[in-house]
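Protocol step 4 of 5: obtain the predicted structure for the target chain.
Materials: sequence only (see below). No template structures provided, no constraints applied. The aim of this step is simply to have a reference model before the mutagenesis design in step 5. Sequence pasted as it appears in the construct record:
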Amino acid sequence: MAGAPAEENIDQAEFDEDEFLGDTPTEATQSGRKRLFSKELRCMMYGFGDDQNPYTESVDMLEDLVIEFITETTHRAMEIGRTGRVQVEDIVFLVRKDPRKYARVKDLLTMNEELKRARKAFDEIKYVGTEGKPK
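Step 4 output (structure tokens):
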């Protein structure tokens, strides 16, 4: 009995820390697990032809599948290359035989590079613009 309050304090402390992990509000399920992607999945389901407000059970099941996929992919990527670390090359290696996934990863990486270049150019223009102003 003496150990029960300590466990409750630990659980409460973990819960309090989780609230500050992200800016996106999360939904909790009956099991107490937070749903990280509910809003996005609802929008995606609607975009792919489901009802505008899909059943919560459907969204929860889809989120479980997404979390499972991310977890398995991450674990597999950690075994490739430098053990214990996930690098972009490891993800590319894992999806290399799936043409759709490979194309999507390639598109996202290309877009990321373009965004980096655009930010860099914008920062250089901003820096040059403030350089000539009198103080």
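Step 4 remarks: Helices lie at 4-18, 38-47, 56-79, 88-95, 99-131. The two ends are 69 Å apart (CA to CA).
Proceed to step 5.
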